[in-house]
Amino acid sequence: MKKRILAVCMTALMVLSMFGGCRTKKAGETTASETTASETAAPSNLVTKGKLTYAVAATFPPFEYMKDGDYTGLDIEMGEALAKEMGLEVEIMDMTFDGLINALQGGRCDIINSAMYIKPEREEQVDFVRYLTLGDTILVRTGTAEELGIFGPDDLSGKTVAVTAGAVEEMKCNELNEQFVSEGKDAINILSLPTSNDAVLAVKNSQADCMIYSSPGAAYLQEEEPGVFDAVSTFDNDTEIGIAVRKGDTEMKEAVEEALQRLVDNGTYAELLEKYNFPEELSYFK
């Protein structure tokens, strides 16, 4: 009988000991066993709570463009993935390229996610999170390169070149013009147009001799319109592009950088480059 009472007491003590080691979890508290890799903390200064609002000029495939009424492209999918890492939805503000920086500076969007080439004059206005390197390609109508005498950037003197207004191609033409003038050559006749699609049409319709396009964009264009354009030269393969944030907005910049690094680490970034036919060597994280 004594042995039975002793056994019951020992069992009771063990049960009490087990419950004594437990406590009620406070609201919002996470136990060690429940801890997992957390998402990137969303910035506190979002334009719209719960959303990552980004400005884009969706006329630049394969980065951002419309297909069957939907936004698509490398930047569009990457924007969605970045927002997901922060626990946010996306809000897209589509506009012309030359209005992007004003929209960011005016507080209408959180970031610019539009394949923006990083140039010193832009870095004076915004801060960048780098994610890709690119070159530029000169495109002419098929079979016209020899007639026009265009085989590289030095041959653009005196030619009419179609570019997107405010885009880096316009800046490059201005830089080339400084060189040509200093050498006593004719300047480029720069045909600045609202969108890259307008520049494409200008070359197709013989309003321009050629156009300057990003190397991935040129490859996509030739795939979409086979036999229409010849790529005569690719140059300046060290151009960097990035996501723009407001100047001095450290919180937003660090959140985007952390979310992007997660995409690199989990393989999403590499998958997107492959999907949109970007060579591995163009990766900023190689």
TrEMBL record:
GO-annotated cellular components: cell envelope
Keyword flag S-adenosyl-L-methionine: no
Compartments, as annotated in UniProt: Cell envelope
Keyword Signal in record: yes
Solute-binding protein family 3/N-terminal domain sequence ranges: 51-280
InterPro entries, alphabetized: SBP_3_CS (IPR018313), Solute-binding_3/MltF_N (IPR001638)
Main location: other
Signal peptide: 1-20
Top-rank taxon, per record: Bacteria
Keywords, comma-separated and alphabetical: Signal
Family under the similarity heading: Belongs to the bacterial solute-binding protein 3 family.
Name by which UniProt lists this protein: ABC transporter substrate-binding protein
Species per Swiss-Prot/TrEMBL record: Qiania dongpingensis
